[in-house]
Automatic annotation (TrEMBL):
It holds the Pfam family GGACT. Transmembrane segments: none annotated. Residues 6-106 form the Gamma-glutamylcyclotransferase AIG2-like domain. It comes from Anaeroselena agilis. It comes from the Bacteria. Keywords: Lyase. This is Gamma-glutamylcyclotransferase family protein. Signal peptide: none annotated.
Length: 146
């Protein structure tokens, strides 16, 4: 069983994904339209989330995953308590693709991520060739790139 998985947070980090999901294969990058990136959870420990926003867009990576990869991601993402699975549509290679994404369950406030977690995601943005404006704004309310 193979499926496309959309990563927008720490699973954009290539080293982290290679360790966590060794059979996952990077398919490429895209922009998820109609969503915004947020961080929810305790201050200094908030984690990435995507939320519907008609004016928003989020840089993402698409991975082809197998059943063992999905099981590892379920554990890492705290499925089904912290995150649920949602099918979203993204333009990829000139086609609209329906892909699986983890979206946070309700009940957590906007927060600030740890520096360590932020840097893991920023490394993923850099390796994919994305500017970190969206990430920095979501985390700190500023588009100043570090």
């Amino acid at each position: 069983m193979k499926k496309l998985y959309l990563a927008y947070g720490s699973n954009m980090n290539l080293e982290q994904m290679a360790y966590r999901c060794p059979t996952a294969r990077l398919q490429g990058s895209a922009t998820l339209e109609g969503f915004k990136l947020t961080f929810r959870g305790p201050h200094g420990g908030a984690v990435a989330n995507i939320e519907a926003d008609p004016a928003g867009n989020v840089p993402v990576l698409l991975w082809e995953i197998q059943a063992a990869d999905e099981a590892a991601l379920d554990r890492y993402e705290g499925f089904p308590i912290l995150y649920r699975k949602q099918t979203v549509s993204v333009e990829f290679n000139g086609q609209c693709r329906k892909v699986m994404a983890y979206v946070m369950t309700p009940g957590r406030r906007i927060g600030v991520p740890s520096t360590y977690y932020f840097n893991i995601i920023r490394d993923g943005y850099r390796s994919a060739g994305f500017k970190s404006d969206t990430l920095t704004f979501a985390a700190y309310g500023s588009t100043v790139v570090e």
